[in-house]
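Researcher: I need the complex structure. Ligand is glyoxylic acid. Inputs:
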Amino acid sequence: MVFYSQVDDFEAWRSALAAEDIELRQTGDIADKASVRHALVWKPPHGFFADFANLALVINLGAGVDALVGRDDLPDVPITRLSDPKMARMMAGYVLFAVTRHARNIPAFERAQRQRRWHYIHPRDPETIRVGILGLGELGLAAAIECARQGYQVQGWSNTLKDVDGIRTSAGLEALPEIFSGSDILVCMLPQTPLTQNLLNAERLALLKTGAAFVNVSRGSIVDEAALIAALQSGHIAEATLDVFATEPLPPSSPLWAMDNVLITPHLASIALPASAARQIGENVRRLRTGQPLLSRVDPGRGY
Ligand code: GLV
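Model: Output:
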């Protein structure tokens, strides 16, 4: 199996996959490229796959496959993405942190602290705070359940209707305005597909209640970033926690950097954890060998 990622730890993946009887190598260490059957990749350079004529499986080293499915240099083989309960748990932890940050007025306390000001704001009951979660895939679902467990009024929205215990759900474009206008904190967890590109445009962001908070942990391209910046500048959106951006790394010229109502993290809300994700990779390699259906197979037409 060939590995490519500029952000993941090759040694950690190598030893995790060795436990699954998979030999992981980096391109430079592979003499016989024709022997490579599987690729574990995160954003490999264009043309990467051409060297490996006998690939039978491409594994996206992450949950979001948008950077992979849009390419014109993919081999005609199945693509899977990682689906790992620990990745979902890590994401749910970040979302709960972001929701708590807004629900508990942490940005106001940070501003007050810089002014040496004791600024008491009486905490609100989580049950009075409405959290909208856009996207109820594995990660969105885990985050919705985590927020509901903390008592927030969670409403989940997805492309196709999901039935989730304890969470109000809705689906389809016609249900979107209600989620926007009915959320105190809106969390974007949608996959990037042709359907979701720029879905959170100026018109939809305008539907948010004045003073709402916004969290994005999926992809920057789903939001009209200029409209988001304008809404944060006017105060229509009071605060945001942003892990993803239209251009990454976020350029130094972005006005977002200087906004004290915005927390920026560099696209790390959740990552694939080798020890647990390797089991799914091992399972898929075995399934491929024995002709069984693959887990978390990507439908390139649908985009996820
Ligand atoms: C990270 O953004 C991922 O898609 O795994």
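Model: Summary of the prediction. Residues 62-64 surround glyoxylic acid (CB under 6 Å).
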